[in-house]
Amino acid sequence: MRSAFGVAEVRAAERAAMARGPEGALMRRAAAALAAECARLLGRVYGSRVTLLVGSGDNGGDALYAGARLARRGAGVTAVLLAPDRAHPGGLAALRAAGGRVVDGVDERDGRAEDAVAGARLVVDGIVGIGGRGGLRERAAHLVAAARTATVVAVDLPSGVDADTGEVRGEAVRADVTVTFGAYKPGLLVDPGRAYAGAVRLVDIGLDLPPERRALEALQYADVARLLPVPAGESDKYRRGVVGVVAGSARYPGAAVLCVAGALHGGAGAVRYAGPAADAVIARFPEALVSAGPPSKAGRVQAWAVGPGLGDDEDRLLDVLDADVPVLIDADGLRLADERRVRARRAPTLLTPHAGEAAALLGVDRARVESARLAAVRELAARYDATVLLKGSTTLVADAEGPVRVNPTGTAWLATAGSGDVLSGLAGSLLAAGLAARDAGSVAAYLHGLAARHAADGAPVAAQDVAEAVPAAWRDVRG
Ligand SMILES: NC(=O)C1=CN([C@@H]2O[C@H](COP(=O)(O)OP(=O)(O)OC[C@H]3O[C@@H](n4cnc5c(N)ncnc54)[C@H](OP(=O)(O)O)[C@@H]3O)[C@@H](O)[C@H]2O)[C@@H](O)CC1
Ligand SMILES: Nc1ncnc2c1ncn2[C@@H]1O[C@H](COP(=O)(O)OP(=O)(O)O)[C@@H](O)[C@H]1O
Ligand SMILES: [K+]
């Protein structure tokens, strides 16, 4: 499991580590690792031009000490100070002693700061780290824009990205690589921040972060492998779980087919379909058990997936919500489901909105959800007292409390009509196989993302291709 920690936890761990170790040890370790990453990116350090953008805090201190190390190895290092009278004194002295040059970044008269950035092969963003508030200030944004061809390395996190949430209010640094210290910060794993961070390298600087204090977690292969429902010798189709699918309508039979396609690959032993697209489902999947009547008359299931392409069929939704088994609600089902009705359920409920649906449920606009995904998913989970999977560029899964899960496997190829229907079936199937709502949602998102990568392999995919590649994703994880 990969964990990310909020700023308050990192600060507390920093204080504890500082009390244990010698003065300045943490910054020395951070700067050494930063310099090593810069050297790796440069290839040849001697003679290369490196420019440091240096703010008023310790983030700038890291950049200055790393710059001193590179200068000692023969790089031409220039520090551009964005707060000249507040730059880290020790770091500044170290850089000067190593032969580095220092330029006033606030002085706009001679263009020296712009030239230093434009002429660099590597630009180090030490403007702000976890102490930053809001987007880049005007002068910093202007200088960052001057780095057109350089490789950009962010210190701890890209300046302008909110460390706790991944929100970007205004301008932010777009890094090729981020060297982060002690722990991942949520803002490095959640969009939009994640997209600004580039490749993230975590450096151990000796912070002790208790796992139970994590704000965010991402499943890795081994975690998913442990959660996958694999049949044992004594299994039969009923013991493996039966998933019921309530999706599609006369107008949207395809949603039913895609949802069943996902459900057939999620580990349940059988898939029941109940609704008006029964003919379309059986024509494509003879293994599905279909009926055209109400869900409650379709036979026993261990979990329901309801909503894709459902239209306005509120009766079928209510029928499913009455069942005392886990229920996944997606798409049209989300629009029709009453908040109090969901809160009153005793069995687990998993809601799977995309940003537009989440925005409608919260009564805000879509851009707001996309810019503050963590806040949105947490708020929905609390309001509905349910597990919520928020789809999109970084899919998040939240319970009413506890750390939020972020899916690491997503790919933009998934942005294709109907792929969400496949995800619903897949997650419903995992629910029926006995996974907790949080695990079912996050394992489904993980497999779905991997499946899309298999299916796409550099070319556009259709939702059906994603469903067909789910077995390859299972094999990846289990292998
Ligand atoms: N934690 C650890 O274990 C370790 C931490 N380490 C490092 O320390 C970093 C944290 O350092 P920090 O606390 O000094 O804060 P930091 O991010 O440098 O800047 C704060 C200053 O910036 C300013 N400012 C605010 N917003 C701004 C904006 N938008 N644009 C411009 N300026 C803005 C604000 O001053 P203001 O101008 O508002 O008065 C404030 O004083 C951390 O990220 C890591 O790199 C490592 O050395 C090793 C171990
Ligand atoms: N930019 C993106 N990056 C990664 N995954 C994405 C992106 N855009 C959409 N997705 C994924 O694609 C799927 C789309 O689902 P949804 O929006 O419900 O579409 P539909 O209703 O057409 O099936 C979700 O799993 C979502 O997480
Ligand atoms: K930074």
UniProtKB/TrEMBL annotation:
<comment type="subunit">
    <text>Homotetramer.</text>
</comment>
<feature type="domain" description="YjeF N-terminal">
    <location>
        <begin position="10"/>
        <end position="213"/>
    </location>
</feature>
<feature type="binding site">
    <location>
        <position position="125"/>
    </location>
    <ligand>
        <name>K(+)</name>
    </ligand>
</feature>
<dbReference type="InterPro" id="IPR036652">
    <property type="entry name" value="YjeF_N_dom_sf"/>
</dbReference>
<feature type="binding site">
    <location>
        <position position="309"/>
    </location>
    <ligand>
        <name>(6S)-NADPHX</name>
    </ligand>
</feature>
<feature type="binding site">
    <location>
        <position position="156"/>
    </location>
    <ligand>
        <name>(6S)-NADPHX</name>
    </ligand>
</feature>
<keyword id="KW-0520">NAD</keyword>
<feature type="binding site">
    <location>
        <position position="159"/>
    </location>
    <ligand>
        <name>K(+)</name>
    </ligand>
</feature>
<comment type="function">
    <text>Catalyzes the epimerization of the S- and R-forms of NAD(P)HX, a damaged form of NAD(P)H that is a result of enzymatic or heat-dependent hydration. This is a prerequisite for the S-specific NAD(P)H-hydrate dehydratase to allow the repair of both epimers of NAD(P)HX.</text>
</comment>
<feature type="binding site">
    <location>
        <begin position="129"/>
        <end position="135"/>
    </location>
    <ligand>
        <name>(6S)-NADPHX</name>
    </ligand>
</feature>
<keyword id="KW-0067">ATP-binding</keyword>
<dbReference type="InterPro" id="IPR029056">
    <property type="entry name" value="Ribokinase-like"/>
</dbReference>
<keyword id="KW-0521">NADP</keyword>
<feature type="binding site">
    <location>
        <position position="354"/>
    </location>
    <ligand>
        <name>(6S)-NADPHX</name>
    </ligand>
</feature>
<dbReference type="Pfam" id="PF01256">
    <property type="entry name" value="Carb_kinase"/>
</dbReference>
<comment type="function">
    <text>Catalyzes the dehydration of the S-form of NAD(P)HX at the expense of ADP, which is converted to AMP. Together with NAD(P)HX epimerase, which catalyzes the epimerization of the S- and R-forms, the enzyme allows the repair of both epimers of NAD(P)HX, a damaged form of NAD(P)H that is a result of enzymatic or heat-dependent hydration.</text>
</comment>
<feature type="binding site">
    <location>
        <position position="255"/>
    </location>
    <ligand>
        <name>(6S)-NADPHX</name>
    </ligand>
</feature>
<dbReference type="Pfam" id="PF03853">
    <property type="entry name" value="YjeF_N"/>
</dbReference>
<keyword id="KW-0413">Isomerase</keyword>
<feature type="binding site">
    <location>
        <position position="420"/>
    </location>
    <ligand>
        <name>AMP</name>
    </ligand>
</feature>
<keyword id="KW-0511">Multifunctional enzyme</keyword>
<comment type="similarity">
    <text>In the C-terminal section; belongs to the NnrD/CARKD family.</text>
</comment>
<feature type="domain" description="YjeF C-terminal">
    <location>
        <begin position="220"/>
        <end position="477"/>
    </location>
</feature>
<feature type="binding site">
    <location>
        <begin position="58"/>
        <end position="62"/>
    </location>
    <ligand>
        <name>(6S)-NADPHX</name>
    </ligand>
</feature>
<keyword id="KW-0630">Potassium</keyword>
<feature type="binding site">
    <location>
        <position position="421"/>
    </location>
    <ligand>
        <name>(6S)-NADPHX</name>
    </ligand>
</feature>
<dbReference type="InterPro" id="IPR000631">
    <property type="entry name" value="CARKD"/>
</dbReference>
<dbReference type="InterPro" id="IPR030677">
    <property type="entry name" value="Nnr"/>
</dbReference>
<comment type="similarity">
    <text>Belongs to the NnrD/CARKD family.</text>
</comment>
<keyword id="KW-0479">Metal-binding</keyword>
<feature type="binding site">
    <location>
        <begin position="391"/>
        <end position="395"/>
    </location>
    <ligand>
        <name>AMP</name>
    </ligand>
</feature>
<feature type="binding site">
    <location>
        <position position="59"/>
    </location>
    <ligand>
        <name>K(+)</name>
    </ligand>
</feature>
<keyword id="KW-0547">Nucleotide-binding</keyword>
<keyword id="KW-0456">Lyase</keyword>
<protein>
    <recommendedName>
        <fullName>Bifunctional NAD(P)H-hydrate repair enzyme</fullName>
        <ecNumber>4.2.1.136</ecNumber>
        <ecNumber>5.1.99.6</ecNumber>
    </recommendedName>
</protein>
<dbReference type="InterPro" id="IPR017953">
    <property type="entry name" value="Carbohydrate_kinase_pred_CS"/>
</dbReference>
<dbReference type="InterPro" id="IPR004443">
    <property type="entry name" value="YjeF_N_dom"/>
</dbReference>
